[in-house]
Amino acid sequence: MMRCLRPLLLASALVLAAGLAPGVAGLSPAQASEPMILPVDPAPLSVETDAGETRFSIEVADDDRERSAGLMFRTEMKDDHGMLFVFERTRRLSFWMKNTPMPLDLVFIDEEGMVVDVLAGEPFSVAPIAPEAPARFVLELKAGTAEKTGIASGDRVSHPRIDGVSRGN
């Protein structure tokens, strides 16, 4: 059993290193207690659901430091805004919410841009949030947004960062 969990635990440790250390990788403890605000990507992210298309403005976290900090310490976010986590390869991903006061929806997306799962994130929890299927991207939204907009497994997500991978670019 432990041998089977080792890859998942290793991936979790890499993705979530910020919660295990006094500061986010590369930041002092004082800087690590401030929310990281990334520039809004010029291209909107869209999700095609059974109810129609929904668009979000997003920040893109695409390196270890940005992925480690994520939405930690944020207390508010617009309903039509989110953060897209971009990983170098498809694998089993696991997140936690140790330093995140906002409840979130975590939308796990595969390399083809298909939603593989939508899971809830509980504020300040260290419980792992991990789908059964591997993913390449994770979209974090305010809690309840996925349900309100109809985002579910099998929906198609489009954004240049996702489309480039699904088309092999």
Strand and helix map with partners:
Elements: H1 2-15, H2 17-20, H3 29-32, E1 45-49, E2 52-61, H4 64-69, E3 81-91, E4 104-109, E5 115-121, E6 135-142, H5 145-149, E7 156-158, H6 160-166
Parallel strand pairs: 2-3
Antiparallel strand pairs: 1-2, 1-7, 3-6, 4-5, 4-6
Tally of extended strands? 7
* Structural classification: alpha+beta
Order of helices and strands: HHHEEHEEEEHEH
Radius of gyration: 15 Å
Largest sheet, in brief, is: 7 strands, mixed
Helical amount among residues, as a percent range?
A: 10-25%
Low-confidence stretches: 1-28
Strand content: 25-35%
* Number of contiguous helices: 6
Order of strands across the biggest sheet? 5-4-6-3-2-1-7
Kindly report the average pLDDT value. 86
- Kindly report how far apart the N and C termini lie: 38 Å
Gross morphology is: globular
Could you explain how this protein is built, in words?
- The chain has a seven-stranded mixed β-sheet with strand order 5-4-6-3-2-1-7.
- The radius of gyration is 15 Å and the shape is globular.
- The termini are far apart.
- A hairpin with a 2-residue loop joins strand 1 (45-49) and strand 2 (52-61).
- The longest helix is centred in the N-terminal third of the chain and has 14 residues, at 2-15.
- It has 169 residues and is α+β, with helices and mostly antiparallel strands.
- It has helices spanning 2-15, 17-20, 29-32, 64-69, 145-149, 160-166; strands at residues 45-49, 52-61, 81-91, 104-109, 115-121, 135-142, 156-158.
